[in-house]
Design a protein that fits this description.
The structure holds two protein chains of two kinds.
Chain A (H helix, E strand, L loop, with lengths): L2 H38 L32 H4 L23 E2 L2 E2 L4 H13 L5 E3 L3 H5 L22 H7 L10 E3 L5 H14 L9 E3 L3 H8 L6 H18 L3 E2 L1 E4 L1 H5 L4 H22 L3 H4 L3 E7 L3 H22 L5 H4 L3 E5 L11 H15 L4 E3 L12 H17 L13 H24 L2 H6 L2 H18 L27 H17 L2 H16 L5 H9 L4 H12 L9
Parallel strand pairs in A: 1-10, 2-3, 3-4, 4-5, 5-6, 7-8, 8-9, 9-10
Helix pairs in contact in A: 3-5, 6-21, 8-10, 10-12, 10-16, 12-14, 12-16, 14-15, 20-21, 20-22
Chain B lengths: L6 E5 L8 H12 L3 E4 L6 H10 L4 E6 L4 H14 L6 E6 L3 H9 L5 E2 L5 H20 L1
Parallel strand pairs in B: 1-2, 1-3, 3-4, 4-5
Helix pairs in contact in B: 1-5, 2-3
The chains are: A mainly alpha, B alpha/beta.
Chain lengths: ~575, ~140
C-alpha cells in the first residue's frame, strides 16, 4: 500500500470516529433534555419500578445503554449456535425444532401415572417428565414408617425396578425422552430407568433423557437430600463417568435454578448460584481426571420463569453467555458442545395464587412467552390449580394447550432471539452478567459452594430475599392481583381438585410386599453386599448398583447400603 | 394482663422440604415479638410434639406443602392430647384445599392459611387466640 492511500484510509477512520463521537454527544444532550422534562413531571405511581428481583430499572433505554455497534459484537453476542451463544444455543432454533413441551407429571401408583403419561402424549406432548412422591425423593420405600401419609401424594411412588417397568409400560423409551426430577437418590432412579430401557430392548447408547441429579441446589433450596456433601458429589461424578462411556446421549444432570428461585431468591441469585453450582460439578469431574469435553456436553440446565417478563428473557440470555465464557476460558473446553448451555424451563409455581385461580392461566401464558423469547429447549407450563393440589386432567391439558397456542398461533418462534437489540433487554442482560460475576467472586471469597452451603450462606441469602419480597407485597409496593389488589371475586373460586386416596398407599405397600416375597432373596442380599463393598472401596457405584436393581433390590434397601457408610447430611437450622 | 411473650414452635413435619413459607412466617412472628422455635426439616410428628413439650410452647404452627396434611395434622393433635398438652394451639399453612381445611378444623386444628396469606393475618390470629385463651383461664 502506498503512503498516500494509507493516509487517506487513516483520515477516513478518524473522520468516521469523530462523526460517531459527535453522534453520541448529540444523543446524550437530547436525552438529558428529555430526562429533565421527565423529572419535572413529579407524579409517579407509588409502586416499586425496579424488577421483581430488585434490579433498578430506568424509565427509558436508548442506544447509549448498549453496544450493538461495538466492534466486539461477534465476541460479545455472535450468532445463534455460535460462541458465546447469547443469541441462542442452536443455529436454527425453533425453525428446525420447536421447544419440547414437557409437562411434569406424577401421582399415585405407577399405573395411574402411566395413564396420565399416555394421556399427555396423546394430546401432543413431546417428552415426559416424572414427578416422584416425597418418599421416593428421599430414598424411602413406600412401606417405610416415614412414608406414611405421603405415598403417591405429590408424585408417583417408585420403590423398585418393578414399579419403574409399570411406569413406562407401553411407552417406548427409544422414542420418548424422559426427564426425572430426582436428586438425593438420583443414581438409584437412573439405574431403574436404565434397566427398564434395557428390558424394552433399547440400546443405552441411544437412550435420551435427563436426570436432575443436582444435589447442590437441594442443599441450598429444595432440601430433598440424603448424604453429606462430599459423598453426594462423589456419586454425581460416578454418574458422569459411567454415562460418558455407556449412555452418551443421556443428560446426566440438570443444573437447576428453579428451586433456588422458588425458595425465594432473586433472578440474579438464581442465575449466579446455579451457574456456580455448575462450575462446581465441572471442577469435581476434572479433579477425578475426566476430560471436560467428554462430560460437559451432557450437562443441562433448568430455569424458573417468573413474572418479571424482560428480566426473565435477559436471564436466559445472560446464562448462555456466562456459561460459554467460563467453559472455554476457565475450564479449557475445546468443543462448542461443551460451551453450549441447553435448558429446560418451568413457569414459576410460586407465582400462582389460590385467589381467583383462573388468573393463573394468564400468568403462566406470559411466563411461557418469556421462556420462549429467552430461547428455552423445553418447557413445563403450570396448571391453574397447582396452588391447591396436583393438577386434574383438565387443568393439565389446558396448561399444555397454552404452550401449543404459543408455538403454533403467535408467530413468536419464527424469528430467533427477537428481543436482541432492545436497548433495555441488552442492558439488562449485561447487568445481570456483571452481577453474577460479582456473586461468583463473593462465593470464591467464602471458599466455594460447599463451604457456603455448610455455613448456610446460600440458605440465608435466599431466605432474606424471600422475606424482603413478602414485606414488599404486604406494604403494597408489589401488586399481586387477587391478593393485595382486585380482590373482588375471591370468594367464588371453586375449582375441581385432584384427590389421592389412602387406597394408593395400601396398594403400593401390598405390591412391595409381594415383590419382597417373589424375588430371590439370596441374589438380592449378595448384590446389596457387593454394592456396600463398592461404597467402602470408593469405587464407581454404577455397575454394582445396576446389578442390585436387576435383582429387584428396593430403593430403600440400596439407600441404606449407601447410608451405612456415608451417613446423612445435617442441615444448618436458622430462619 | 401480664406481658408474656407468646411461644410458637414452627415445624416442618414429614418429608417435605419446602421451607420458604415456614421461614418467612417464623421471621414475621419473631419480628412481631413472639418467641419462635424453628425445628428444621423432615421432622416426624413425634419429634415435633417432643420439642413442643420441651419448649413449653403455646402454639405449634406446621407448614405442609406435600399434600400429607390429612395425616400429619391429626397425628400432631393426637400426640399432644396424649401428652396432656391439648391447651396448645395447632395451626399452620401450606397447599391445603379448602374442604380439607374445614375437615381439619372440625378435628381440632386451628385456622389454616393458604398461599397468598399476609403474615400479618397469621400474627393477629395467633395473638387473638392467645388473648382469648388467657381470658378464658382467668375466668
Amino acid at each position: 500500500m502506498d503512503e498516500g492511500r494509507g493516509d487517506a484510509v487513516l483520515n477516513g477512520l478518524v473522520a468516521e470516529n469523530e462523526r460517531l463521537e459527535a453522534e453520541v454527544e448529540r444523543l446524550e444532550r437530547a436525552l438529558a433534555v428529555w430526562l429533565s422534562e421527565y423529572e419535572e413531571t413529579s407524579k409517579r405511581r407509588d409502586i416499586a419500578f425496579d424488577t421483581i428481583s430488585g434490579t433498578p430499572v430506568k424509565p427509558l433505554y436508548t442506544p447509549l445503554d448498549i453496544s450493538v455497534s461495538d466492534p466486539d459484537y461477534l465476541e460479545s453476542a455472535g450468532f445463534p449456535g455460535q460462541y458465546p451463544f447469547l443469541r441462542g444455543p442452536y443455529a436454527t432454533m425453533y425453525r428446525t425444532r420447536l421447544w419440547t413441551t414437557r409437562q411434569f407429571a406424577g401421582f399415585g401408583t405407577a399405573e395411574e401415572t402411566n395413564e396420565r403419561f399416555k394421556y399427555l402424549l396423546n394430546h401432543g406432548q413431546m417428552g415426559l417428565s416424572v414427578a416422584f412422591d416425597f418418599p421416593t425423593l428421599m430414598g424411602y420405600d413406600s412401606d417405610d414408617p416415614r412414608s406414611e401419609g405421603e405415598v403417591g401424594v405429590c408424585g408417583v411412588a417408585i420403590s423398585s425396578l418393578a414399579d419403574m417397568e409399570l411406569l413406562f409400560d407401553g411407552i417406548p423409551l427409544s422414542d420418548v425422552s424422559v426427564s426425572m426430577t430426582i436428586n438425593g437418590p438420583a443414581i438409584l432412579l437412573y439405574c431403574f430407568l436404565l434397566v427398564t430401557a434395557e428390558k424394552q430392548g433399547v440400546a443405552l447408547k441411544e437412550l435420551r433423557g435427563t436426570i436432575q441429579n443436582d444435589i447442590l441446589k437441594e442443599f441450598m433450596a429444595q432440601h430433598a437430600w440424603i448424604f453429606p456433601t462430599d459423598p453426594a458429589l462423589k456419586i454425581i461424578t460416578d454418574v458422569f463417568e459411567w454415562s460418558s462411556k455407556h449412555a452418551p446421549k443421556f443428560n446426566t444432570i440438570s443444573i437447576s435454578g428453579y428451586h433456588i428461585r422458588e425458595a425465594g431468591s432473586t433472578a440474579v441469585q438464581e442465575l449466579a448460584f446455579t451457574l456456580k453450582n455448575g462450575f462446581t460439578y465441572v471442577e469435581k469431574a476434572i479433579e477425578r481426571g475426566l476430560d471436560v469435553d467428554e462430560f460437559a456436553p451432557r450437562l443441562s440446565f433448568f430455569w424458573d420463569v417468573h413474572n418479571d417478563f424482560f428480566e426473565e428473557v435477559a436471564k436466559f440470555r445472560a446464562a448462555r453467555r456466562i456459561w460459554a465464557r467460563h467453559m472455554r476460558e476457565k475450564y479449557g473446553a475445546r468443543e462448542p458442545e461443551s460451551w453450549r448451555l441447553r435448558t429446560h424451563a418451568q413457569t414459576a409455581g410460586v407465582s400462582l395464587m389460590a385467589q381467583q385461580p383462573e388468573n393463573n392461566i394468564t400468568r403462566v401464558a406470559y411466563q411461557a412467552l418469556a421462556a420462549v423469547l429467552g430461547g428455552t429447549q423445553s418447557l413445563h407450563t403450570n396448571a391453574l390449580d397447582e396452588t391447591l393440589a396436583l393438577p386434574t386432567e383438565r387443568a393439565a391439558r389446558l396448561a399444555l394447550r397454552t404452550q401449543q397456542i404459543l408455538a403454533y398461533e403467535t408467530g413468536v418462534p419464527n424469528v430467533i432471539d427477537p428481543l436482541a437489540g432492545s436497548y433495555y433487554v441488552e442492558r439488562l442482560t449485561d447487568t445481570m452478567e456483571e452481577e453474577a460475576e460479582r456473586i461468583f467472586a463473593e462465593i470464591d471469597e467464602l471458599g466455594g459452594v460447599v463451604r457456603g452451603i455448610e455455613e448456610g450462606y446460600f440458605q440465608r441469602q435466599i431466605a432474606e430475599s424471600a422475606a424482603a419480597f413478602q414485606r414488599e407485597v404486604e406494604e403494597n409496593r408489589r401488586v399481586i392481583v387477587g391478593v393485595n389488589a382486585f380482590t373482588e371475586g375471591n370468594e367464588d373460586s371453586e375449582i375441581e381438585i385432584l384427590r389421592i386416596t389412602p387406597e394408593t398407599e395400601r396398594r403400593q405397600r401390598e405390591r412391595l410386599e409381594e415383590l419382597r416375597e417373589r424375588r430371590d432373596a439370596k441374589t438380592v442380599e449378595r448384590a446389596l453386599g457387593r454394592l456396600e463393598d463398592a461404597v467402602r472401596a470408593e469405587q464407581n457405584l454404577m455397575e454394582p448398583m445396576l446389578d442390585a436393581v436387576r435383582a429387584y433390590a428396593t430403593l430403600g434397601e440400596m439407600r441404606q447400603a449407601l447410608e451405612r457408610v456415608y451417613g446423612r447430611f445435617r442441615e444448618p437450622i436458622f430462619f | 394482663m401480664t406481658e408474656r411473650k407468646i411461644r410458637v414452635l414452627v415445624g416442618k413435619p414429614g418429608l417435605d422440604g419446602h421451607d420458604r413459607g415456614a421461614k418467612v412466617v417464623a421471621a414475621a412472628l419473631r419480628d412481631s415479638g413472639m418467641e419462635v422455635i424453628y425445628t428444621g426439616l423432615h421432622q416426624t410428628p413425634d419429634d415435633i410434639v417432643r420439642a413442643a413439650i420441651q419448649e413449653d410452647v403455646d402454639v405449634v404452627a406446621l407448614s405442609i406443602l406435600s399434600g400429607a396434611h390429612m395425616t400429619l395434622f391429626p397425628k400432631v393433635v393426637k400426640l399432644l392430647r396424649e401428652e396432656g398438652a391439648d391447651h396448645v394451639l395447632v395451626t399452620g399453612g401450606g397447599i391445603i384445599p379448602p374442604e380439607d381445611m374445614d375437615e381439619l378444623q372440625a378435628a381440632g386444628v386451628g385456622r389454616l392459611f393458604g398461599p397468598g396469606t399476609a403474615t400479618a393475618d397469621a400474627v393477629s390470629y395467633i395473638r387473638d387466640w392467645f388473648e382469648a385463651s388467657r381470658a378464658g383461664e382467668e375466668d
